[in-house]
Amino acid sequence: MSKLSNILTMLLLLQSGKKYSVKELSDILEVSQRMVRIYKEDLDKSGIYVDTIMGPYGGYVLNQNIKLPIRKFKYEDSKLLNSYIKDEKDKLKKHKLELLQDKIKGTYIGSKSEANELNLKDENLKKFNLLTRAIREKRKVKIKYYSYGKGENERIIDPAEMFLFQDGWYCAAFCELKKDIRHFELRRIINYKLLNEKYE
Question: Which has fewest Cβ within 10 Å: 12, 36, 53, 130?
């Protein structure tokens, strides 16, 4: 997972009000304990202060309410913005509009035909469609996933949302193996199967 994805996951965990040790967060995020401390520093710098409890039973705890905005965009919004991008002559403004378009795509969940129009890469289109269906029908998915440093492993996930980050699509899902929310990069999903079992 990317640094931003890990920081967001860490923030979501701490929002529960539970105290997490650095080791617990390290295991959940599959990064070193040093990286967890860096994530904590980054959150502090952004104005989200994570309290540190010292001692052998210490850890990190979040004592403030943070609301992460969720914005949904329709395909028509994306199409309208495309027309402005096409007509824009100023290169800087055009670049900024293209960045905005990427953000819209990152919070967009659409139908199979619309996903094609949003230029999903062919190799990930089947995965995208299956995971989107799983989200719509609240069905579990069995995947074989490649983790950096740990290789291939099988997991059963409860998909919740699709999002685009930088140059790749991700699925935010509850991982039954890790008993927590994880972000799965589509191109690292090797095998996948939609299960009949549903989740709540």
Answer: 53
Contacts of 136 (CB under 8 A, 6+ apart): none
User: Does some domain include residue 116?
Assistant: no
136-148 average pLDDT score = 88
pTM: 0.43
Structure tokens at 35: 């990286």
Give the model confidence (pLDDT) of 161-179 as tens digits: 887 765 678 888 999 988 8
User: How many structural domains comprise the chain?
Assistant: 3
Q: Which domain holds residue 93?
A: 69-108
Q: Are 173 and 160 in contact (CB under 8 A)?
A: yes
Token readout for 8 is 């967001």
- Torsion 148-150-153-159 (CA) sign: negative
pLDDT in tens, 4-28: 777 888 887 887 778 889 988 888 8
Token pair listed for 57: 């039973």
Q: At 14, which CATH number?
A: 1.10.10.10
Same domain, 135 and 170: yes
Q: Which residue has the tokens 């919740």?
A: 160
CATH number at residue 158: 2.30.30
pLDDT beyond 80 at 52: yes
Would you call 195 helix, strand, or coil by DSSP?
A: strand
